[in-house]
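Sync notes, pocket subgroup
Present: LS, DG
LS reminded everyone that the earlier model was apo-only. Rerun requested with calcium ion included. Inputs:
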Amino acid sequence: MRRSRWLVILAVIGMPLAMAPLAMAPLAMAQESEPVELGSKVEVGAKVGTESKVEPASDQDQEQKPPVVTAVKGSPVIDGKVDDFWAKAVGVHVRKQVDDLTVVEKGQMATATVKLLWDETHLYALWVVKDSKLSLDHYEDWQQDSVELFLDRNLKRTVFYQYDDAQYRVNYEGKVSGQGEGYVAEDLQAAASVNDSGYVVEMSILIPGRVMEPGYKMGVEMQVNDHRGGQGRDAITKWNHDEDDSWEDTSNFGIVELK
Ligand SMILES: [Ca+2]
Ligand SMILES: [Ca+2]
Ligand SMILES: [Ca+2]
């Protein structure tokens, strides 16, 4: 609800305007899902995940509307190094715990800060991952230390994958994999670099069949897989939804809007 409508309501019921800030407190809490500009440029090795001011969506907000992350225009070089382009992008946290898949302490889970860029043909993602124990010691790609971006290009938010829906994965050595009817391996280019805090991934995803422009929206979810050298994946963290269903269900994705 807009502030002006609150003022109208307060006037009707005769509440003094001095009380308005208290009355509007729940409203302010419900609007915290909007991503916040991180400000400073992200450097390889920087502990971005611990410094950001971005807050995740509240449970109440998630039920009402999906969170939105803004992608700004820019075409980075996909080399695992952080181009200047990324400094103007907005960052969001990937740090929501998925209880069913978490066998480590919450403080040990790998997390990430993600920024998105776009141009007429591609969506780009920069992942700065905080992971204190790197491991690829599993034959399944999705069990290894890796990041995943899920995309619902037509924003239909279906509970199953359509022709356009895809899961794009990159491990900390830059190996790509994925699945879904909309997944084409050649559409995904990536590079990664390891640092003291974890690793950095740059993704380039070809968006086929259209020229993108400001205002265009797609469904998106982001996830970090954390392997710590044991039998399998020890934790996953996500941007929006707190269940392990994004690989088959797009209805709980957030939204990326091109600016
Ligand atoms: Ca780069
Ligand atoms: Ca790990
Ligand atoms: Ca779709």
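DG: Residues 41-258 form a domain with the Immunoglobulin-like fold (CATH 2.60.40.1190).
LS: The chain has two domains: 1-30, 41-258.
Action: DG to write up.
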